[in-house]
Amino acid sequence: MKRFILIHYGEIGLKKSNITYFLDKLRKRLRFVLQDEFKINYSIKHTLGRFLVSLPDDFSVDDEAKYVEVLFKVFGIQNFKFVYESVIDLDDLGEKIWENLPDYVLNTELKPRTFRVLVKRSMPLPFKSIELEREIGARLLRRGIEIKVKMVDPEFVVDLEFFNDHSYFSFKKYRGAGGLSANSQGRFVSLISSGIDSPVASYMMMRRGARVIFVHFHAYPFSDKSEMENVKSLVGVLSGYQFDTKLYLVPFGKFQKSISTNLDIPSKIRTVLYRRLMVRIAERIARNEHAKGLITGDNLGQVASQTPENMFAVHDASTIPMFYPLIGFDKEETVNLAEKIGTFKISKLPCSDSCTMFMPERPELKANIYDVREYEKFLPINEWVEGVLKESEVINLK
Ligand code: ATP
Ligand code: MG
Questions:
Q1: Which of 188, 193, 330 to mutate for ligand 1's pocket (most ligand atoms within 8 Å of CB)?
Q2: Which one of the ligands is nearest to 354 CA?
């Protein structure tokens, strides 16, 4: 039987006049990830608010997991199913469904205890959806499915859609990643460390359609390269969620050293000064890259640098918008998402953290913006910002 991936998109469906912009981007992304992974040309048809992607003739149940992994990386998808294309005639259709039931459903030990048929209809038919559900369910029971029918919360669902003069049935619905089509919202620069938060923050913005350019400030040669290597791996994982990824590796240790040894600057204010400098350099990169804003993994109250006063003192150094997608998250929520998107394991790897190395023992919790600006006058900030990009390395990933 002919098989397809049947994709329903979520929020994109609410768009009005610019819906084709989002659908074109989603289609482009789908085509790219599938062809990149499986080296096959796919026909991707858009019909009645869905995408239908034709699967190769030799597609088998064993291939499903690989496809699922790839589709989880396509933003804009609400859910997807691996469907069989079939006929409208109910006797014939009931027989086809019976023949293709997953093995475990007929296995006395593994079989689910309850089931139902769920119909969605987008074409005129002489039956109501509920009648179709009952008819198909009755045929499966007659054929010997021997599972109790349960309309609410059944363990097994025979999913059936009718549209374009065909029926499409499947036995499992996968939740997509949600969000908006990749690259639909323009570019942003994300400040990424090897920690747990900033990779997740970057992902959250990608999910909303941001094309993320990464910048990492490293302390090499004052530290070893372990943190930088971890950041490269993290960006490697995140690059799977968008097109063409760029990572700037900016040498930052000498600035930290210079700030931490400056006798005019109280040690407790250092952290805020480091961050302000990072933001200034990131803004310079954003301007070069025509990016619309900066992203950080800040989370209200999580650490000393993330009190409202200190966040404001850091934000003060930027003249473009700063986005904090994790601002209201609990740590557990961030960790869960990090595990799901594949960054958690890397973020947990040991490394020499460039930020802790030049850290004061007692950082300021409520930086005063006017004081901070005054202390900065002891430093050649503009010269640093102007010069450092020439010393930075830029890595391009697919
Ligand atoms: P993370 O888990 O992302 O490291 P964190 O909880 O350790 O965050 P901070 O160390 O206060 O928090 O950093 C706040 C944010 O500043 C980070 O989420 C990240 O966006 C940015 N940042 C911190 N250190 C660096 C760095 N070395 N290079 C680039 N960005 C950084
Ligand atoms: Mg950190």
A1: 193
A2: 1
| CATH number of the domain to which 46 belongs | 3.30.2130.30
Q: Which residues surround ligand 2, an ion (CB under 5 A)?
A: 193, 195
Q: Which residue ranges of the chain lie beneath pLDDT 70?
A: 353-356
Tell me which residue has its CA closest to atom 11 in ligand 1. Answer: 305
Looking at the structure, tell me whether residues 389 and 337 fall in a common domain: yes
- pLDDT value of position 355: 54
| Position 392 in a domain | yes
Q: What confidence score (pLDDT) does residue 354 get?
A: 58
The residue segments making up the domain with residue 62 are 3-175
Instruction: Report yes or no: 150 and 116 within 8 Å, Cβ to Cβ.
Output: yes
| pLDDT on residue 301 | 85
Q: Which ligand is nearest to the CA of 359?
A: 1
pLDDT digits (tens, 9 = 90+) for 288-299: 999 999 999 999
pLDDT of residue 3: 97
Residue 182 lies in a domain: no
Q: Are residues 170 and 202 in the same domain?
A: no
Domain assignment of residue 180, yes or no: no
- Position 356 scores a pLDDT of 67
The number of distinct structural domains making up the chain is 2
The ligand placed nearest to the CA atom of residue 314 is: 1
Same domain, 165 and 305: no
pTM of the model: 0.94
User: Is 363's C-beta closer than 6 angstroms to any atom of ligand 1?
Assistant: no
Task: Answer whether 354 contacts ligand 1 (Cβ < 6 A).
Answer: yes
Q: Whose CA is nearest to atom 8 of ligand 1?
A: 197
- CB of 300 closer than 6 angstroms to any ligand 1 atom: no
Distance 49 CA to ligand 2 centre (A): 42
Q: What is the CATH number of the domain that holds 263?
A: 3.40.50.620
The answer to whether the CB of 297 is under 6 A from ligand 1 is yes
164 and 203 in a single domain? The answer is no
Per residue in 343-374, pLDDT tens? 999 999 987 765 567 888 888 899 999 999 99
